[in-house]
Amino acid sequence: MRNLLMKVSYDGTNYNGFQTQPGGNTVQDLLEDAIELLSGEKLKITASGRTDAGVHARGQVFNFYTASKIPVERWCIALNSRLSEDIVVTDAVEVPLEFHSRREAKQKTYRYTINANQFPDLFNRRYQFHHHGRLDITAMEEGLRHLIGTHDFTTFASRKSTKPSHVRTIYDAWIETDTSMCRPGTRDQGIIHTYVTGSGFLQHMVRIIMGTLMEVGEGKRTPESISVILEAKNRATAGPTAMSTGLMLWDVEYDITSFVKPDFA
Amino acid sequence: MRNLLMKVSYDGTNYNGFQTQPGGNTVQDLLEDAIELLSGEKLKITASGRTDAGVHARGQVFNFYTASKIPVERWCIALNSRLSEDIVVTDAVEVPLEFHSRREAKQKTYRYTINANQFPDLFNRRYQFHHHGRLDITAMEEGLRHLIGTHDFTTFASRKSTKPSHVRTIYDAWIETDTSMCRPGTRDQGIIHTYVTGSGFLQHMVRIIMGTLMEVGEGKRTPESISVILEAKNRATAGPTAMSTGLMLWDVEYDITSFVKPDFA
């Protein structure tokens, strides 16, 4: 038996999220179907975590146990030829049997993309939330800084969260603005990418952070109010849950650099 | 009566090309339907030229005559709300009645995008041709330079072309390679964007140029052979017609800077 660890990118637009659920049509289902087609094994994969319906991933990570003799370097191409073109397995390595892609994840980074130009960016429309009207990006950056550190994130968690603890650590959070598509003489503000890196994330956490941060950008809240509502530990004090379309699981990091090929971790 | 000039972007994936044809489902049809919904006028638009099925446009240009009193600055938003999300009108200006978007086009630029990385770029898969195997980009750049100037482009035109003359001028042609997505330790070569600017283009011209240029990149032809086959004026001497998916009408330029808003031309 071998334990294989893989990295996968997907366009979440057409799926009911990553994790298997009664309605079917999930990324996990398609990955397990492709593995079965390839190795004949009906197995379950373990991912670093779930992503919601419509959320994308640049670097989701999963592992599974296989008795197949297929060399590890053959798996990516073999799986991709059995997958829909909106799911691409980009890396595969063998890891020790005890390795678990959720429990050993050290940190995750999500990216949320807002298009703050007048018009939708046609060619990236599935991966952006199009915001109408001016945003104060400096105020958003300031608001974001109040989230860094170890906090109880109940304010920024779905009311449906069943996790025993809502304490998480945000290691870093920053905004990168791409103004290359801005048209001169317009009020175009560019494509605003917000990155949040943390130990783990609660259900809807990044989307509620972004819904609240956009209210900061719109001048409906002050940057300092982020600290106040964080203290309140009350979902009702935060803004709306931003649309899933702008969200992408950017990267998952592990302490496994010693036994994987250099470009994986 | 007013003559309105507009710029439109579209994702050509789901359409039978730009120009109205018996099978329907063209970008032109959808634009004319949206105009009719807005102004009540059943009219025909004139574009800078056609694009084939599956070809995209960043900056296609068209004009039409309207009796509508709707102010020109209202047209973009009004049309976009009546169009599918894969067609976006980005600019609208009033031009003199004699202005004709095809006859007065001074030059056009097309961009063809090759993904020369090991894996498809998931999030841009509709806008790239994924090339397997190594390409000699320097040789492709050298080959491209042989096309610059005024030539009879019969070699690079569809055999179905009915144009009385195949003489066209290529003003400039260059390659820009984006290696930001390349993964260290792999044979990834990056995203190769080829731009070709000319007075006008024959049917399939850019796609035949690219199919031939990829053979140069693969070492199947020398860069100098481009000159030789150009002289031959024979379609059979060129390479295959590259897939439409990588092609985008990048820009159409006019001598109209004096009477349009600065960001249009």
Give a summary of the structure in a few sentences.
The structure is a homodimer of 265-residue chains. The first copy, chain A, has 5 helices and 10 strands, in the order βαββαβββαβββααβ. By secondary structure, the first copy, chain A, is an alpha+beta fold.
Task: Tell me about this structure.
Chain A folds into two domains: 2-104, Pseudouridine synthase I, catalytic domain, N-terminal subdomain (Alpha-Beta Plaits, 2-Layer Sandwich); 107-250, Pseudouridine synthase I, catalytic domain, C-terminal subdomain (Alpha-Beta Plaits), CATH 3.30.70.660. Helices cover 18% and strands 28% of the residues of chain A. Chain A is built from five helices and ten strands; from the N terminus they run E-H-E-E-H-E-E-E-H-E-E-E-H-H-E. In chain A, strand 2 and strand 3 form a beta hairpin. Chains A and B meet through strand 4 of A and strand 4 of B.
